[in-house]
Amino acid sequence: MEISKSNNECSSPSAGEEFKDMMKGVTKFLMMVIFLGTIILWIMMPTVTYRNKWLPYMRIKFGASTYFGATGTTLFMYMFPMMAVACLGCVYLHFNKRKSLHQIDRERKGVWSALRRPMLVKGPLGIVSVTEIMFLAMFVALLLWIFITYLRNNFATITPQSAAAHGQTLWQAKLDSAALRIGLIGNICLAFLFLPVARGSSLLPAVGLTSESSIKYHIWLGHMVMTIFTVHGLCYIICWASMHELSQMITWETEDISNLAGEIALLAGLAMWATTYPPIRRRFFEVFFYTHYLYIVFMLFFVLHVGISFSFIAFPGFYIFMVDRFLRFLQSRDNIRLLSARILPSNTIELTFSKNPRLVYSPTSIMFVNIPIVSKLQWHPFTITSSSKLEPEKLSVVIKSEGKWSTKLYQTLSSSDQIDRLAVSVEGPYGPASTDFLRHEALVMVSGGSGITPFISVIRDLIATSQNQKYKIPKITLICAFKNSSEICMLDLVLPLSGLQTELSDINIKIEVFITREKEARSDATTEKIKTLWFKPSISDQSISSILGPNSWLWLGAILSSSFLIFMIIIGIITRYYIYPIDHNTNKIYSWTSKTIIYILVISVSIMATSSAAMLWNKRKYGNVENKQVQNVDVPSSTSSPVSWGYNSLREIESSPQESLVQCTNLHFGERPNLKKLLLDVEGSSVGVLVCGPKKMRQEVAKLCSSGLAENLHFESISFSW
To answer: Measured between alpha carbons, how far is 212 from 382 in angstroms, rounded to an integer?
Structure first.
């Protein structure tokens, strides 16, 4: 395949691209410097130098103000830097939205390639790369350093006399001190806990991660947080019981630590933690889902427990999550225009929505869907199968009937031809900032069952790239494993119903299909039908669009910065003219509880006001343009068509692109894919390997890629962690 552009055109960026590269470099450098500065603060926090020199200086600079009082120290030293990093991340992603051809480099062997290889394949952590192990080890080392240094420095000051002065024996005093320090390291874990579940946050994509792929970090951190806080609480209970002071458990000090608030937070956390046990989550997903809303109780009473001043150390991640959660709430208020539903014989549905052409997303993105006729409260994530390049005005998701929710939806749609409209709300799309599949010479995608869905979007995106950019496309090998032959109709979704402008000769694709539970084609395969339902939209239905418009990253940065600025201004006024005249910066007279509630209310109002204003401004500017075609649309009647992949009628395909796809497909009955042979037979100096399917399949592919049998294999797992 030839590259249509000259080497000079591909290698010489324009002045605008040079400016973008410069801005990306500057913002990335500033993010790194600020984040490392915060890490240094955490490292120094338990030391004597920090306590005797750094902390007094910071309190003079930031904690003596009549506008913020003692809260100013943690607000400016811990909260402000992380908010700055998040805002800089938005700027970085704005300039990183679209990569030009000169920026796409082939994957090369080296240190970075080795660091991305799977290191652990089986075990409680799942499939983990070398880089992830390194960062996990550094994080655990940080926690151990903080805890051990705190204990060493504090235990040196505890004597029998000092313990007796507080009515304690020596071991009780040390246990009391250790319990406090355990709680402190729990706050460090809590600082990161909400970042992986802030789906629209800038911090994850700025470092090449997605919320979907980062859910495992949330799980790890959740286990660490609850283990540490449970030990923290048990240590205090043991200490109080030994001193015959269990009444301490129900005390609520308004000018000091509130024990009761901490216990309420711990109970809420334990309830969430219990439902994450895999058998409970799998069998009673709704219990797991609804119990997790206790995070509101957990965080509210955590802040009431430690006070707002200390909570700012762990609060930045939750602040970013609050902004993301409210923006998702605003987006979910709209009813979305559903165009059609294709009902496949394999208990699978493809829903196609109207999409604003300005909305661009990457392959493998996901979208959360709520259908009130099935459940008014439940939201479920589904992989987007369409390509925003190939289908600029449509967006599709595929739903496999597996759980209660999806089964009810399939039964509702498959049993009726009279549904004129289906009310739907969505959140998203969410996905990687970029995928850069073009950096590989070959691409192997291994799927099991419905795991094929993210690869449909990859193939469509590469087809669009071959049509529009005339750039060299990697050789594609799609390996599909299905249980039954009825599921092979999923391949009908590889190509869109419309949007293809040329033949598929521009891409080199090979599909290997394995039907594991059938030894030959079923005789009734050609009689199965694909039914298509076309819906009539309501005037109020909206196209799927970005809640913050085409420049969403800049708007998100504006919301984060302006809401935080408004919060500081309002709090500064309240503190100066209401709290300070009462407390005089002693932090002992004015109620901690009242102060905490004021701060939480101001934070909430600031986030809601700025987010709503940004959403309304973008809706007013782009809303009319986005939805002008929703009205007066002619909708085809419901139709049925034979399954294109009927094994006895492959030559009856009418569409040329579909026929080309059939010709490059090999069917294998009664066998499982020999992944070792299939992967090692792929030629190319750089072979990207993506896998989505059952856990054992992902582990087998990861083991092959990390075994060293082929240095050209670069592994990436896609799982439905949400």
So the answer is: 11
Which of 64-68, 101-105, 552-556, 701-705 ranks highest by mean pLDDT?
A: 552-556
Whether 478 contacts 454, CB under 8 Å: no
Q: Strand 348-354 vs strand 665-669: parallel, antiparallel, or unpaired? A: unpaired
Q: Report d(CA 181, CA 184) in Å as an integer.
A: 5
Distance, in Å, from the CA atom of 11 to the CA atom of 6, rounded to the nearest integer, reads: 9
User: 558 vs 88, 323, 423, CA distance in Å?
Assistant: 10, 11, 32
What is the C-alpha separation between 475 and 37, in angstroms, rounded?
44
Mean pLDDT confidence for 565-582: 93
Quick check: helix, strand or coil at residue 218? helix
DSSP state of 51: I
Taking CA atoms, 110 is separated from 390, 711, 714, in Å, by 34, 10, 12
- pLDDT for the residue 345: 82
pLDDT tens digit string along 116-173?
778 888 878 888 888 889 999 999 999 999 999 999 999 989 999 998 888 889 999 9
- The domain defined by 338-545+674-717 folds into Rossmann fold (3.40.50)
Residue boundaries of the structural domains of the chain: 338-545+674-717
Q: Kindly compute the dihedral angle of the four CA atoms of residues 253, 260, 242, 184, in this order, to the nearest 10 degrees.
A: -80
For residue range 693-708, list pLDDT tens digits in order.
Answer: 888 888 888 888 888 7
Instruction: Look up residue 302 and give its two tokens.
Output: 């955590």
Does pLDDT of 234 surpass 90? yes
Of the candidate ranges 56-65, 462-471, 647-656, 694-703, the one whose mean pLDDT is the lowest = 647-656
What letter would DSSP give residue 446?
Answer: E
| DSSP conformation letters of 552-617 | HHHHHHHHHHHHHHHHHHHHHHHIIIIIHHHHTT-SSSS-HHHHHHHHHHHHHHHHHHHHHHHHHH
Residue 628 has pLDDT above 80, yes or no: no
Alpha carbon dihedral 318, 319, 321, 322, in 10-degree steps, equals: 120
The mean predicted confidence, pLDDT, of the chain is 84
Is omega for the bond preceding 13 within 30 degrees of 0, making it cis?
A: no
Give the pair of three-digit tokens for residue 470.
């005339």
Per cent of the chain over pLDDT 90 is 37
Q: How many CA atoms lie within 13 A of 60 on its CB side?
A: 6
CA 615 → CA 38, 97, 549, distances in Å? 32, 20, 8
Q: Which of 355, 444, 452, 369 is nearest to 406 (CA)?
A: 369
Other CB atoms within a 10 A radius of the CB of residue 91 amount to 21
Helix 170-193, helix 130-155: angle, nearest 10: 150
